[in-house]
Structure formats: structure tokens, C-alpha cells
Amino acid sequence: MEHVDVLIVGAGLSGIGAACHLKALTPGKTVTILEARDAIGGTWDLFRYPGVRSDSDMFTLGYSFRPWPEDKGIARGELIRDYIVSTARTFGVDRSIRFRHRVLAAAWSSETARWTVTVESPAGTTELSCSFLYFCAGYYRYDEGYTPAFPGIESFAGRVVHPQSWPDDLEYDGKRVVVIGSGATAVTLVPALAETAAHVAMLQRSPTYVATLPTVDPVAAALRDRISPRRSASVVRWKNVLLQQLSYQLCRRRPELMKKVFRAGVLRQLPPGFDVDTHFAPRYDPWDQRLCISPDGDLFAALSEGTASIVTGEIETFTPDGVRLTSGEHLPADLVVTATGLNLLFLGGATITVDGREMVPAETLAYKGMMLAGVPNLALAVGYTNASWTLKADLVARYVTRLLRHMDAHGYAVCVPEAPPVPPDADPLIDLKSGYVLRDADAMPRQGPAAPWRLYQNYPRDVLLLKHGRVDDGAMRFSRAPAARTQTAGVSTERVS
Description:
5-stranded parallel sheet, disordered C terminus
């Protein structure tokens, strides 16, 4: 059976970044990346709907070791995909990728201190082993988005599409479009479609907080010709990190104040008399769900120009030529886009067993938001919900290299976090109140009440914890190589404190 030191699952933003860190900081280790699809890029290769872009700034979404090279902080999806692909090629990790290799299962054996990974590939089902398993597969299902069961949808004479599966041949120029949803995808799609469609109606069951950010970062533009690109990128990155944290903390601690701030921002960009309180005043507090971004206020511009409209209400049924609401209003449509969310899928849907016992995510605590209690030699990249994904994924990758170097220096073969029992009221790892999280909350690991079992959604705090904190923190148990153990049953372990 083929064996590698580190096996990375996923060749998206997180997986490519992880491979680059491992190559630079643990150069003696063999690294292989398994990618279920046939391309580099993950989310940024999968999503091809009109206007697809980052919903956070690229100075923090980009890699710390390869700063985003442009002034535009909000970037189109194809530019992000090109950035990931060129990073893989520049650092030579593209040669380590095996495409169309989907991980079905991974089984840990304490006797060998190895994972046996079952993979579905073009050659059939195969196995390989690794010493350390690193999941960078995100947390949603790639092959199918979430679409509710809409009454009467079979009677609709037009076309219904989900943004996650946007067809290459879809024509919408001059057509009446209804976009169902109010999240980041809908906020992105509506102004993009409105450029050439006859009209676009954004149909939402309930409002979402929407804030405006400039596409071009003014600080990045000002520093471009004054200091080196690397120093400029560092300044802009930390400026944006601190602003994100300030906004988030104000939202959590002073929600009523921030509701007024968001409302005032919307009022400034819409015509007098626009019903802001119906369409842009959510029932929940800011950051209970992810905040949506409108670059340069493009959504509000489309609403102001009349090329798009927003309707808040419940669907009663589809009709042959549109959608009828419970209020009696009828929205005519030639095309309906169901921007209705994602399906969660933890660890890419792989079954994980440890010495024959299957790991149940909801019965497991997450350690530092990147490992699982009782699961040896396994890390996962789960980014922030209140800031750029890569900020956390980058810290996790650096921490994994620290962990591997520590194990090599002390002759350890196994590391496994040890946690107290999972509290019955423990929060899921992703603690947003978004529909896609609430639907599948039982599919995710849990958080404990305090560090290292709590995910604080705080980048500066995590820098201290993951980049500068102790690897041997007392919660991690280390074991030596199997050959060095005695012949007694079980696993010989040593706690480092």
C-alpha cells in the first residue's frame, strides 16, 4: 500500500495553502493532495454564476505568504480561481494533486499509528495510508445545493436553476428573473443579472443585513507607490482584520446601535420613501447570520434604477408564468434562481473510524477549531464566519507544521486531543443561526465552554493561540512510535505539560 506522510483532502483555497506551508516549513515530508473534482480552486472553481465574487476582502482572503497583488479588495470569482491556481504552480504543489480522487473513508489504527484511506478514483476504489490526515474540504456539499420543496414548481413553464449548478447555456438577457433568497449569493446575483435582464425581483422570506464596501481599497491604493508591495499588503491586511473585529464586537455587544448604523447606511443609498424597514430590517441581531456585502453599493444602485426590485413575503405556489405569494401578489418570471443555500457536509462526507469505532461529529468536541477530541493525527481547516476564511485556514496550516515539527523533535508518532465529555447544550462548531447551519447542526462537532475547546471567532486571539501558543498545552496527548512501545495491550502514551 502506498504511504505518504501528510495526506491533504481538497485542492481549494485551504488545501493549496496548507500544501504550500507544509512544503516550506516541513520540507522532508511527503505530501499528497486528493481532489474529488477535476480542477484546482474548490469553491472558486465550482461557482460560476453571474457576478460571483468574494464576500470579504482579498487582502485577508488571500494567502499571507503570497499577498493579493491588486488594489481591488472585492474580486471576481475567476480572478480568485486564477490566484489559487497560480499559487499552486508557483510553489510547485500542483504536481502533488490527484484529481477525481474522492475520500470515502479513513480508518485509524493505533497498532500502526497510521490512517488507511479508502478513495474512489478513475481506477476504481483504492487505498493508501498516511501518518497525518488533513481535511481541507470545507463544510458544504459540492454536488448539490439546498432547494426547498416549493409548491407547484412542476407547473412552472420557465427554467429553475440553483446557483451552485449554474448551466453554461443559460440565457437571461431580456428575461424576467426571480431570485429566491436573501443571502450573499442573492445579493451578488441580483445586480449582476439586472445589467441585462428585463427585470430582476429578489424574493426574500425575511431580510438580511447588507453593508456597502468599496471595491478598491483606498488604503491599498494610497500605499501602492509609497512602500513595498509586501509591507503594503501587511498594513492593509491588519487594517482590515482590526476593522472586521471592531465591527463584529460592536454587533455582538451593541446590537441596537449597529442596527441603526446599518439602517442609516441603507437609507443613504435608496430613494426617498423606499420601505427600508420591511426589506432591510432583519428580525435577528447583526452577525447572528453572516453579514452580506454590496461592493460599491451595486445592489442599492440596481434597486434605485428600477432594474431590480425586492419583495419580502412567503411563496404560496409556483404558477406557469411565475410565483404567487401568500399576500396574493404575483411575480412574473421566465427564469427562477433558487439562491436558497447550501447543504452541510462535514469532512467531505467521509466516514471516520478510530480503532474500529466510528466517529460521530455531534458527540465530539473541536480542539482549537482545527482538531477533534479523541481522533489522532487529524486536522481540519474551518475558517471564520465573521471574517475571511483564509485567516483561520492559514493559522491552522502553520499550526500543523509546528505540531509535526514538535512530534519529529521528540520522536512522537501520535498526537490526539483529550477532552472532557461533550456538554448536552454545547454549541455546534459553526454557531451561526443561518438556515443551512440550523438544518444540519447535528452533522457538526461541538464547542466547549472555554479554550482550547471554544472557537472565539477572533483572529488576533487565535494568532496568540495557534502561532505563538504552546503545542504541548496539556490538552494534547502524545505517543511514541509503535516500535518503541512495550508489548502490553493498548497504546503507550506520554503527556507533555
